[in-house]
Amino acid sequence: MTFAEKVKVAIVGYRGMVGSVLVNRMLEEDDFALVDAKFFSTSTHGTPAPKVGKYDLGLIGDANSVTELSKYDIIITCQGGDYTNAMHPQLRAAGWNGYWIDAASALRMKDNVSLILDPINKDQLKAALEAGQKDFAGANCTVSLMLIGLGGLFSKGLVENVIVSSYQAASGAGAANMRELIEQFGALHSHVEAELADKSKTMLDVAAKVQEKLSTDLPAPYFGAPLAASLIPWIDAKHDHGFTKEEWKGHAETNKILGFADNTIKVDSTCVRVGVLRSHSQSITLKLKENLSVEQIEQLIAEHNKWAYVVPNEKEQTLARLTPTAVSGTLNIAVGRVRKLSLGDEYVSIFTVGDQLLWGAAEPLRRMLRLVVGAPLDY
Ligand SMILES: NC(=O)C1=CN([C@@H]2O[C@H](COP(=O)(O)OP(=O)(O)OC[C@H]3O[C@@H](n4cnc5c(N)ncnc54)[C@H](OP(=O)(O)O)[C@@H]3O)[C@@H](O)[C@H]2O)C=CC1
Ligand SMILES: N[C@@H](CC(=O)OP(=O)(O)O)C(=O)O
């Protein structure tokens, strides 16, 4: 792309979960040197922006102002789908012709919007840019993590069908939900602190008191049910045929990223919220098109990109490297427990863990910014 002067970039939602991870990554990779950036918020506008390394970004802009935002070449938004639905049409109606790079799902399935996952679909993204496309959206976090983790199998066309059981962290639902989980852990512990200290109490006594708190007055305004010491097998809104929207996205977005307009690969998911703070895990059953050995599968995964790495199917390695604790805050996507299933030679079970705030959200947006401004990217 060629821009008249230093590219002006508006970052909307800089203080949310995805926005703050995006800002950190941009700082780590010195992306702020490439652009003239400004933060935007719906609630903190007019106040000084937090210092970003050596960069002073001035005052925070008003994220609800079409006039203000229209002055920018690129808008990166991590503000959420309601914001996109409200502002994107207004900006386009006002004649704004800049690049819209979005973390939300609102525009993902529109024809003139590409899903950003450049280690998998950089040719698609480059072709879209060359064709003059201006709207781009990061994909659903579980989809992005699965495709980068198993890129060696998907990109070679080896996958026929997929069944996913996800274990999704609280932070996937946003900053307020993450806070709620931590507060629930604290409330449960406080509720039984005396019993834990009293050695005459059995663990059944303690568990009964925890259960009483869980089922009566553990605050859960954001999740709608306790998540600490429990789980919630429902993420996002209701969709058709008994699926949740999160589960539907697994199928629709996987196919869109891979460029299958006819939904060639069937992806059936059960998405579950668990009491993890950060990083999503997935237990994935694949039906492959060929009878590959475990060693061949592991090699294809390890060779595809520098972020996916194979954890040997051993207890010690799994506990040390295949957990949210091991990958959180990193771009690594751990892939382990690789084994053939008794269902048949083509069936494989794989467990993968990745930080949904990085490759699942912020990192594709940051890389799309570099693609738009023509800056180099590592692979
Ligand atoms: N969380 C994740 O793992 C993923 C999220 N996404 C998508 O990214 C978008 C943004 O998600 P996410 O970052 O999780 O959303 P958050 O809820 O963390 O942040 C969104 C906005 O909420 C406002 N906000 C209100 N209270 C607070 C607070 N206490 N701390 C921080 N922000 C606050 C901020 O806007 P303001 O400054 O205007 O008040 C912020 O920009 C959504 O569309 C989501 O679906 C996609 C993939 C993964
Ligand atoms: N729904 C995911 C995170 C997310 O925001 O996904 P999406 O961008 O597809 O709505 C989760 O809660 O873990």
Structure description:
This protein is α/β, with parallel strands linked by helices. It has two domains: 8-139 and 362-373, Rossmann fold; 143-173 and 232-355, Dihydrodipicolinate Reductase, domain 2 (2-Layer Sandwich). 38% of the residues lie in helices and 21% in strands. The chain has helices at 17-28, 66-69, 81-93, 118-130, 141-149, 151-154, 175-191, 193-197, 203-216, 245-258, 294-304, 315-321, 324-327, 358-373, and strands at residues 7-12, 35-41, 61-62, 74-77, 99-102, 113-116, 135-138, 159-168, 231-232, 266-274, 280-288, 308-310, 333-340, 347-354. The protein has a seven-stranded parallel sheet with strand order 3-2-1-4-5-7-6. Strands 9-10-8-11-14-13-12 form a seven-stranded mixed sheet. Strand 13 (333-340) and strand 14 form a beta hairpin. Helix 5 packs across helix 10 (245-258). The protein is globular. It binds NADPH dihydro-nicotinamide-adenine-dinucleotide phosphate and aspartyl phosphate. Aspartyl phosphate (PHD) binds at residues 104-105, 140-141, 168, 172-173, 235-236, 246, 249, 356. InterPro entries: Asp-semialdehyde_DH_CS (IPR000319), Asp_ADH_gamma-type (IPR011534), Asp_semialdehyde_DH (IPR012080), NAD(P)-bd_dom_sf (IPR036291), Semialdehyde_DH_NAD-bd (IPR000534), Semialdhyde_DH_dimer_dom (IPR012280). The active site is at residues 141, 280.
